[in-house]
């Protein structure tokens, strides 16, 4: 049943997800889902690696999943490349489909979804397609000058790590991603992390969030 639903998602990329019948209830329904948000270069990927090491989560970087599509033979490759180069947001259906595939694979039921959702439209598409909400959300709060400095010295050969694209990404972050962060703050699901400091100092703010989650899981 689930395979069929994913197959139909694959074949209908322009679907409009507005009705109950479009939802699916897959095995990740009992999973722990954490969204990891913050501007470009705020340190999301760096801290996710530490969370994986310490708490055994599976790390799904939406950006990495999209970049993999570019180098695979995907029909969306050139569209994704153009979108990333412009610092814009890839259509929700494409990104959610890639995330869903990862949520459905393997035995790990604890997920860090890094760099997604980037807009209210992304958030709503995820909730409708998966029928799930995150258990909690981390927000790495970092000043723009620091983010620019970090991205420019990241040195991974990314087509979007240049000053022109960074400026566009920061604008998109402010106008489209901050409303998502506000949404989760109002729902009481947001953990704001001061993203300035050494990697270890920042992780000491992150650790208690996951330690509390583990404790709760042991009690229930
Ligand atoms: N606390 C920190 N202080 C200084 N540089 C950092 C810190 N955390 C990460 N970095 C560096 O900044 C760059 C961006 O970090 P990254 O984790 O890739 O950010 P994001 O995933 O949010 O885009 C990387 O080169 C990384 O090594
Ligand atoms: O859900 C996502 C995640 C990423 N991106 C695109 O991928 C780029 C890089 O995102 P990533 O999270 O890898 O990097 P960051 O912005 O944190 O440096 C973004 O600017 C977007 O163009 C997207 O469209 N949707």
From TrEMBL:
Single GO molecular function: dCMP kinase activity
Record protein name field: UMP-CMP kinase
Superkingdom classification of source: Eukaryota
Catalytic EC class: transferase
Reactions performed catalytically: CMP + ATP = CDP + ADP; dCMP + ATP = dCDP + ADP; UMP + ATP = UDP + ADP
GO biological process: 'de novo' pyrimidine nucleobase biosynthetic process; pyrimidine nucleotide biosynthetic process
Cofactor notes: Binds 1 Mg(2+) ion per monomer.
Cofactor(s) in the UniProt record: Mg(2+)
Subcellular location(s) per record: Cytoplasm; Nucleus
PROSITE patterns: ADENYLATE_KINASE (PS00113)
Binding site for ATP: 41-46, 154, 197
Domain notes: Consists of three domains, a large central CORE domain and two small peripheral domains, NMPbind and LID, which undergo movements during catalysis. The LID domain closes over the site of phosphoryl transfer upon ATP binding. Assembling and dissambling the active center during each catalytic cycle provides an effective means to prevent ATP hydrolysis.
Keywords: ATP-binding, Cytoplasm, Kinase, Nucleotide-binding, Nucleus, Pyrimidine biosynthesis, Transferase
Protein EC: 2.7.4.14
Xref: InterPro entries: Adenylat/UMP-CMP_kin, Adenylat_kinase_CS, P-loop_NTPase, UMP_CMP_kinase
Chief place of localization: cytoplasm
Annotated CMP binding sites: 122
Function of the protein: Catalyzes the phosphorylation of pyrimidine nucleoside monophosphates at the expense of ATP. Plays an important role in de novo pyrimidine nucleotide biosynthesis. Has preference for UMP and CMP as phosphate acceptors.
Gene3D superfamilies named among the record's database cross-references: P-loop containing nucleotide triphosphate hydrolases (3.40.50.300)
């Amino acid at each position: 049943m689930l395979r069929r639903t994913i197959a139909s998602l694959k074949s209908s990329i322009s679907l409009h997800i507005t009705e109950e019948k479009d939802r699916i209830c897959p095995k990740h329904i009992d999973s722990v889902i954490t969204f990891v948000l913050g501007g470009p270069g705020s340190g999301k990927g760096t801290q996710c690696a530490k969370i994986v090491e310490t708490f055994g989560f599976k790390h799904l970087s939406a950006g990495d999943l999209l970049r993999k599509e570019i180098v695979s033979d995907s029909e969306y490759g050139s569209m994704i490349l153009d979108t990333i180069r412009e610092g814009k947001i890839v259509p929700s259906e494409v990104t959610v489909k890639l995330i869903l595939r990862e949520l459905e694979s393997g035995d790990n039921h604890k997920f860090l979804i890094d760099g997604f959702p980037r807009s209210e439209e992304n958030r709503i598409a995820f909730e409708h397609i998966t029928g799930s909400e995150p258990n909690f959300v981390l927000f790495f709060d970092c000043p723009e000058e620091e983010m620019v400095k970090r991205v420019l010295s990241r040195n991974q050969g990314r087509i979007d790590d240049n000053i022109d694209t960074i400026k566009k990404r920061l604008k998109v972050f402010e106008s489209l991603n901050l409303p998502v962060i506000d949404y989760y703050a109002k729902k009481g699901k947001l953990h704001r992390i001061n993203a300035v400091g050494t990697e270890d100092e920042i992780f000491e703010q992150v650790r208690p969030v996951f330690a509390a989650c583990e404790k709760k899981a042991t009690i229930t």
